[in-house]
Amino acid sequence: MPRVGVSELVTLSRVIAGGQLLRYRGGEQGFTSQFEEKLTKQLGVKHALTVNSGTSALISALAAAGIGPGDEVLVPAYTWVATAIAPLAVGAVPVLVDVNESLTIDPEDIKRKITPYTKAIMPVHMLNLVCDMDAITAIAKQHRLKVIEDACQAVGVTYKGRRVGTIGEAGAFSFNQFKNLNSGEGGAVLTNDDRIFTRARMFHDAGSYTREYAFESNEAVFCGMNLRVSELTGAVLHAQLPKLDPLLKRLRKRHTMMTKQLSKTKKLRISPHNDPDNAVGLTVIFDRPDDAKNFAGHHGVERLIDTGRHVYTNWQPIMTQRTFHDKMNPWKWANREITYSNDMCSKTLDILSRTCRVALGAQYPMPVMQMRARMLAKAIS
Ligand SMILES: Cc1ncc(COP(=O)(O)O)c(C=O)c1O
Predict the structure, then answer these.
(1) pLDDT in single tens digits along all 381 residues of the chain
(2) 362 and 257, same structural domain?
(3) How many domains is the chain built from?
(4) Is the distance from CB of 187 to CB of 170 less than 8 angstroms?
(5) Are residues 263 and 367 in the same domain?
(6) Side-chain half-sphere of 276: how many Cα atoms within 13 Å?
(7) Which neighbouring-strand residues pair with 162?
(8) Are 237 and 124 members of one domain?
(9) Are 154 and 254 found together in one domain?
(10) Residue 317 domain-assigned?
(11) 308 and 338 together in one domain
(12) In which domain, by residue range, is 61 found?
């Protein structure tokens, strides 16, 4: 995450001094709108809509793309639980798909999990690692499925020259404390599709009666929610956006250095990456789970199977199919019986038990990270 500092404070104080904390205030361009405009230019995408969390962004994107009751949505078995909860919020059900050694959704398992009711794929770019978007978009095209990218953990990261979150029909970012842009809480929907943008805007603002763009006037108003951000969030994001690409550049440099050091030992392998020339996230894989567990004892290293609700077996409300009200339970109106079991994605569990994430420490000076890399390499050689 970028360091939060003086620029955020100065921009926040301007909002507070102006006394206009609400985002929408009748045509005047506040910091949130300016942030969106800059973000779209930086990412090369037509529309960005700031919302109050990554979960809200996923739900808005699914609702805007027309996903609803009876639909099945393919989600990876390794992701933050919110990815699997989002389809339920629009009445659809998540169908779990294995990840491969890249820690992202396995295109081969996507093919196996498609049914006549599948409507969307949600590839998740975990840990700044990118999905195999070429394979995923090809499958989606063949089966006429929507691709809603969960780029919550990979804000700004590129896949073969394109920013993730802008490749599918829609994408979602999170700006919570741990992400590449950090406003404490927050998120954004990204899309090149005017209609999806219009519908997401309505959904996030209780139907949004304001029509700022000509293309919006064709869309009939429907009931939405309030997932808006305040200008305080917009101000922090606006001040922080210039720090995003420098952050990714620092990660990239540390990735090259760390990979070089860790490649010296035969005791582990650098995990395969779907765009190795631009990698900004690093994971390593061992032959045996115990070796990964021991390696995770070192500072800045964690074994993925031990990361709580990122692993599907720990998604208790999903595994038990419980919702807040018995009659608002999408599994009950699914087109077929959907079942989950702890061993349903055993390939994922096997990979996660042998894989460790290695923190690249963008916040530390390079010599510190070089020393850490040498220590890690020595510890396992
Ligand atoms: C992969 C992934 N998807 C979705 C989310 C949800 O984002 P938020 O916490 O902003 O709602 C997160 C947040 O950690 C995430 O990591």
Answers:
(1) 777 999 999 999 999 999 999 998 766 689 999 999 999 999 999 999 999 999 999 999 999 999 999 999 999 999 999 999 999 999 999 999 999 999 999 999 999 999 999 999 999 999 999 999 999 999 999 999 999 999 999 999 999 999 999 999 999 999 999 999 999 999 999 999 999 999 999 999 987 766 677 677 778 889 999 999 999 999 999 999 999 999 999 999 999 999 999 999 889 999 999 999 999 999 999 999 999 999 999 999 999 999 999 999 999 999 999 999 999 999 999 999 999 999 999 999 999 999 999 999 999 999 999 999 999 999 887
(2) yes
(3) 2
(4) no
(5) yes
(6) 8
(7) 159
(8) yes
(9) no
(10) yes
(11) yes
(12) 6-243
- State which of 50, 55, 183 you would mutate to test the pocket of ligand 1, scoring each by most atoms of that ligand within 8 A of its C-beta: 55
Across the strands, what pairs with 74? 95, 121
Identify the CATH number of the domain in which residue 249 sits. Answer: 3.90.1150.10
C-beta 123 within 6 A of ligand 1: no
- State if residue 153 touches ligand 1 by the CB under 6 angstroms criterion: yes
Nearest alpha carbon to residue 239 among 5, 1, 41, 27: 5
Residue whose entry in the numeric block shows the structure tokens 């995770």: 296
Q: Is the pTM of this model over 0.90?
A: yes
Q: How far apart are CA 302 and CA 295, in angstroms?
A: 8
- How far, in Å, is the centroid of ligand 1 from the Cα of 311? 14
Ligand 1 lined by 83 (C-beta under 6 Å): yes
Q: Is residue 290 part of a domain?
A: yes
Domain boundary among 188, 223, 243: 243
Residue 74 CA from chain centroid, whole number: 15
